[in-house]
């Protein structure tokens, strides 16, 4: 399926606001501004020099002649136009999940009070069921794990609550996460990005609640051709205690952005009351991107001991067996990008790609 046409390439320079990017033409050196149709944070993508793909606007009179439609990240092409995830869902995924169903796009149920709220599809099956379907485009994939959202989304939480309510009016409901790249092994709601969304999804998903949750992944070429890579990506949820209490320990990975990077910086943060606030502060002081991969109850000391070995014993290079990780080299972090002394003291370097899943459970 064709989801975009690349008319121009560029190298990322900056993002002056959510809906615009500044890029440099790799051939002429010209700088130009383009529309960014994806309002997500995109922190892991929009780094200086990232190769971008642009599509020419259909309207020749539009102020910005090009729109950012994709980029190259690691070994993947990442499509970035969120609304085109709906097209991929309609053409590539839903016909398999709901064969012989009729799909009506952008449907507003008459029972809903807020007439400005609409769902991506209404499906009518041969069995007589009516299914409201909301599609969410997911582009945040690291270490084999897809996470949504990458920034707080009150709209996404509201849609989940509305779907759950409408099941009492005779509808069935589904939320479909379309993962745009990365061949993920598992999908998880991004607790540290949006606790409200995670909590809402936890409450409404089947079998606990009335909304069916499904995740599927795509693979896209540089010419905008998309195909289904994984029709059913396993879904995992954080422990209920983590959803209910925003406290515990966060372990994050940092890289220098190089494909040849020998390993990852590992940061361990803890908070007794408000871990998301500490996470947000960490984001603000970091000069390079990072990816949180674990949040669990406990203290910084216990997690540091379990995952990285005792901090006080670290001196120079130190080989040791790490529980759940295997043999790894752990040294104090020497990489760039840290301006906060507290964070610098919490960073170590580990060669292995690690994702800790002890505090998640399958759907």
Overview of this protein structure:
With 363 residues, the chain is α+β, with helices and mostly antiparallel strands. It has 3 domains: 8-72, OB fold (Dihydrolipoamide Acetyltransferase, E2P) (Beta Barrel); 84-238, Trna Endonuclease, Chain: A, domain 1; 243-362, no CATH class. It is 18% helix and 38% strand. The protein is built from 7 helices and 23 strands. The strands form 5 sheets. The protein has a 6-stranded antiparallel beta sheet with strand order 3-2-1-4-5-6, with no helix packed on it. A 6-stranded mixed beta sheet has the order 7-8-9-12-14-15, sandwiched between helices. The longest helix has 14 residues, at 84-97. The chain is globular, with a radius of gyration of 22 Å. Mean pLDDT is 77; it is low at 256-263 and 287-359.
